Amino acid sequence: MSQESDAFTHPIRCKRNQYAFATLLLLLLVLPAVPEVRSANPAMGSAREKFEAGKYGEAASLLQAALAREPQDSSSAFWLMRSYYELDMTDKTVSAAERAAKLEPSGSEYHQWLGQAYGRKAEKTRSFSYARKTRAEFETAVSLNPANLLARRDLLEFYLSAPWFLGGGKDKGWRQAGAIAAIDPVEGCLARADYWQDLDKPESAAGDYAKVLELKPGRLDPYFEVAGYYEARKNAGRLEAAVEAAAKLNPRNCRLDYYRGVACILARKRLAEADQYLKTYWATAPPRRDFPSHASAHVWLGRLYEQLAKLQLAAQQYKSALELDPGDKDANEGQRRTNQVR
Fold it and tell me: C-alpha angle 208/253/191, rounded to 5°?
């Protein structure tokens, strides 16, 4: 099986979330790319189309019916798991992931995603047992295919985030970064940047992100990961450079609208274009966990309207963001600011 490295990016790497229960809630820092799973099931094409369009409920219905007809079809089980994952249906995600891995026990990507499913369960239930299962599945994925760099990134993030009694360790994380770099220099830079960020060494991390742009990778994911880093650090110039480099590979990718809008707002220039970029993004991009969230797009629009002293419009954007993600820290802070001055 091959991996579609540009089909699904890694947004959570780009903008780290802050969780109160840090031991477990940092387990899901990475979303891996989706494997190229082939199936003779005629319903698979329609299900994939629904999934790509963000119609996860419809995709799940098609895949449930497909599995009823062909219970041994591992690819239908895999995509059903992916649909449940996007729908945030944790128990069903775990069940479908376990089924897919059981049907394809030698599939590295299947175990990688089973680790993701267990990680989500650990996050939701604060379960040490599921945290250990998460690590075990990531390690299995790497052992089945040492060249599965995305599984290695997942494992690196686990090692960095988890305490020793769950199998974590900074030294283990560094070894994974080295193993990744030995296979792919670009991915090695990104892995090392994760490591440096975890050690709170921003200058070292920035050096590796800059190196990624110097290497000029031939796929989109690294550029968007770098863009997310510079978005979080409010570096408009570097963000714009990453975005325009990505645009040379695929000028129609919808994520470009998001990052171009953010870059304009950070630079305080072309604000009318920024407004249009972000509105286009949340109007056209499917709601996927591996894309910048629609809530974030609303937050940036809120910041734009604050810059323009349009506080009522800003408040509306922060409200929209909170309706999508009640826990969004930036949206909550923006709402408080606009309420205080209105």
Answer: 20
Q: What DSSP letter does each residue of 199-218 carry, written as one string?
A: TT-HHHHHHHHHHHHHH--S
* Token representation of residue 299: 């937050």
pLDDT digits (tens, 9 = 90+) for 79-105: 999 999 999 999 999 999 999 999 999
- C-alpha gyration radius of the chain: 20
Residue 35 has pLDDT above 80, yes or no: no
Cβ contact 177:194 at 8 Å: yes
Which residues are registered as beta bridge partners of 35?
A: 3
pTM of the model: 0.83
Give the separation between CA 39 and CA 49, rounded to whole angstroms: 14
User: What are the CA-CA distances from residue 187 to residues 8, 200, 215 (Å)?
Assistant: 15, 20, 11
196-10-114 Cα angle (round to 5) = 105
- The amino acid that residue 267 corresponds to is A
Coil, helix or strand at residue 35: strand
Give the pLDDT confidence score for residue 289 in this predicted structure. Answer: 87
DSSP lists the bridge partners of residue 3 as 35
**Residues contacting 60, CB < 8 A, separation 6+:** 80, 83, 84, 87
| Residue pair 253/277 in contact by the 8 Å Cβ criterion | no
